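User: structure tokens for glucarate dehydratase, please.
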Amino acid sequence: MSIDVAAEPHRISDVRITPVAFRDLPLLNTVGVHEPLALRAIVEVVTDSGLTGLGETYGDAGHLDRLRAAASAITGVDVWHVHEIACRIRRALSGDRGTAGHGMSGMVTGSSTADRVLSPFEVACLDIQGKAIGRPVSDLLGGAVRDRVDYSAYLFYKWAGHPGAEDDAWGAALDPDQIVAQAQRMIGEYGFGAIKLKGGVFHPDEEAEAILALRKAFPDHPLRVDPNGAWSVETSIRVGAALDGVIEYLEDPTTGIDGMARVARDVAMPLATNMCVVAFDHVKPAVAQDAVQVVLSDHHFWGGLGRSRALGDICATFGLGLSMHSNSHLGISLAAMTHLAAATPDLTYACDTHWPWKDPADDVIVPGALTFSGGAVAVPTAPGLGVELDRDALARLHERYLAGGIRERDDTGYMRRFEPAFDPTAPRW
Ligand code: GKR
Ligand code: MG
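Assistant: Done. Predicted tokens:
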């Protein structure tokens, strides 16, 4: 008699958490500049039935400690019982009120610690579920409604290279012409059909000028700008007026639900956020005040793919648009983001990704499963996430983590090494 693998329980027998570091470029944002190494943690969940599932999350020290506490709490649970896993993780972290070590680099965040910790385990469990029944993760989320997921060109002001090192291949982007050149190169290589500029770095008038230059160079590409809450309410309204009819949405011009609501009343375009609505209990006050019109979901802090799907339904219920936020990431995250986006019917905008900023040689997955063409990634159809761990690469990136010495993302600290007086306090303008 043969065993029905799909019907058998798949109990968690082991969890491996491996911090890794990969090369990053000196990308500027309102709290500082990216360090030469970005951190992630790779989570492998192993079952007594011999299956392994993958998850990827932040690699900061505080978060690693919580991941380890969660890992010991979920041993023995069947990977189909995600509610039980969530429950055990909440219990293991009860009393933990800290927000440190979540890889958001000092930017305002009130995301739920338990949801951030749950996320990579939930993704790994879905990977295993998919492998057990021979179906892609998108099928477990209700099925793909698109077979390709559009991403946007994510432009950054940047230095030519890390101080003391040679210029990198992208070179400097410190004015509108260099931003347009960056966009031309990125769109030439990846085919993106939408453009986002990370702002909050220079005076808002200069950043608005860069957006107008992009509009001229790319008349048909939807545009967005995201200063990460660096502007006052008044500045946001003024810049919003200058960019009326030019950008598809204005992302986090100012901080907080109250501030965003004040801006929303006086600008024509929708406001988007990955800063003031970052957990389920922010939705009610944001909707009540009509503070944001687009939520940028992110399974890394909304508690995984299932809860992010639920967020999609909530957004649809309240007539909110939906798009996807990104941080510097590797291939397991890109696979998870792509399955989620594929299975989210009301996704209304191209998703963000930091992918082009990563050296293609720096990843932990076997190459080939995820490729960009026409600005989109084809949704993997293999069982689970559809990506495979490259153990040699994992070991290499772990070695780099050990040797690199960075244990927390600290864009502000890195910036202050070169500009000691740098002050990220918002509003900066
Ligand atoms: O990578 O510097 C960065 C971004 O600023 C990132 O940390 C943000 O979380 O991309 C993000 C955003 O959209 O706010
Ligand atoms: Mg943002």
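User: Anything notable?

Assistant: The chain has two domains: 12-135+391-404, 139-378.
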